[in-house]
Amino acid sequence: MIRFSCDNANYANDLMELVRAFEQRTDEDVSLSVAYSLREGEMDVEVRADKFPNFVKYFRYPYSPADAMQAKRLEKRYLKMAMYGVLVFLTGAELPYGCLTGIRPTKLYAELGEDAHDIFLRDFSVRPEKTALVERILAAQKGVRNPDPERVADLFVFIPFCPTRCAYCSFVSMPVDRQKQLLRPYTDYLVEEIKYLKRTAKKKGYSVRAVYVGGGTPTALPLPMLDEVLAAAKCRGAKEFTVEAGRPDTITEDALSLFKERGVTRVSVNPQTFNDRTLERIGRRHTAADVERAYALAKKGFDVNMDLIAMLPGESEADFRYSVDRAAELSPANVTVHTLYLKKGSALRVGGYRSAENEEAERMVDHALKRLSAERYEPYYMYRQKYTSGNLENVGYTKPGKACLYNMDIMEEDTTVFAAGAAAISKRVIPSVNLIERNANYKEPLEYVKHFDTVMQKQRAFWGV
């Protein structure tokens, strides 16, 4: 247990993310307090710990912010750097991403400019191999990032229903057989919101380059209703139209025929693992053979993504290596390798499951990188999450020319997103002032339906149309 306090409450939550990462890697019991002071051109940080009598560490950093926003960034950065050094000293543990706790290492690297490489290694203590991964991803994105953020946007549609709820899931997602009375009104309102957002995008001068229908499992929706959603979501001129079918037990020839009719170009067929015992353990009502059957159908007409998860409960390193190797053999357009994270609300976390096998997690994701690279996949986007095994990352891999535009846009936050449905968050990117504005819908599907008038009022106020 690591207890922590900071003399600036505004930074406490961000700094706690660093503390939690160390809690996964050490049995040490430490109390830590951080305070800082500012003077002309300098910031002094004091870190105290009760592990040793009168323990105190002092740090001094250059401090000349141009504005209040930069001042906040610098203060948090220096506090993390100081805390990281002390925590490494006290616990003997080191983290693969050093003192970085943010979701988007690639975005931070790009913002740092020509000094980014040295700052990642020297100041943030990111391991050389992780710095190299960030750099490789940014290189892969060249030429496929949004060419005109002022005029090119994406459309996101959320369908929060699944055949069953997976044990690791913390998303807003409901078993479809328990929500039958909600499906019709949800579909009607979702279609109305999509049509409004498309009209608004046109009035605002945006073209839509990527449409992403996510979930949940959109294919858990009855096909006539899903047809209504896809017909509304289809955007003329879009370069990409993804449906996150996900669960192979919902992927049928009829569903794929519907996708083709509505202009879908990309489909997810997500095994998570090719181990049948694990699939049963995590609550997925399908087998590895079902994945291969669904993939054989989908690959005939679509680019296919497969998701895998490292560190699923009960899985060995050999199990995960087999899943990566099997996915590589099947050769889909994209493979996304997640590292298990245990957010509040997931059945695994509620049940007390924890994973402290950090070195095993690292070996798993290292194998994925090596094996997929050998098969000509290139890592092209990355994000990190709280409570992730080994304090690691999630990485999307792509075959040449098959990168998912929406995934890059949403992770690098350089594209305006018109978002419809429960838990959807619209984002307006204003590159000229490096600003992102957000508008969040009600999270729960029932609340979305009950308060749809308010949903639309907020959308109109946000977009000014």
What's the short story on this structure?
The chain is an alpha/beta fold and 465 residues long.
Write the layout of secondary structure elements.
Blueprint: E1 2-6, H1 9-23, E2 30-39, E3 41-49, E4 55-63, H2 68-91, H3 105-112, H4 116-123, H5 128-141, E5 152-159, E6 161-162, E7 174-175, H6 180-203, E8 207-215, H7 223-233, E9 240-246, H8 253-261, E10 266-269, H9 276-281, H10 288-298, E11 303-310, H11 317-330, E12 334-339, H12 347-350, H13 358-374, E13 378-383, E14 394-398, H14 405-412, E15 416-420, E16 425-430, E17 435-440, H15 445-450, H16 452-463
Parallel strand pairs: 1-2, 5-8, 5-15, 6-7, 8-9, 9-10, 10-11, 11-12
Antiparallel strand pairs: 2-3, 3-4, 12-14, 13-14, 16-17
Helix pairs in contact: 1-2, 3-4, 3-5, 6-7, 6-16, 11-13
Determine the fraction of residues in helical runs and give it as a percent range: 40-55%
Instruction: Provide the gyration radius in Å.
Output: 23 Å
Ends distance: 51 Å
CATH architecture of the largest domain: Alpha-Beta Barrel
Largest sheet properties: 9 strands, mixed
The name CATH uses for the topology of the largest domain is: TIM Barrel
Domain module count: 3
Q: Strand content of the residues, in percent?
A: 15-25%
CATH class of the largest domain: Alpha Beta
Segments where pLDDT lies below 50 for 5+ residues?
A: none
Give the rounded overall mean pLDDT.
Answer: 92
Adjacency order of strands in the biggest sheet: 13-14-12-11-10-9-8-5-15
- Structural class determined from secondary elements: alpha/beta
Number of strands: 17
Number of helices: 16
Note the overall shape: globular
Any idea what the CATH superfamily of the largest domain is called?
Aldolase class I
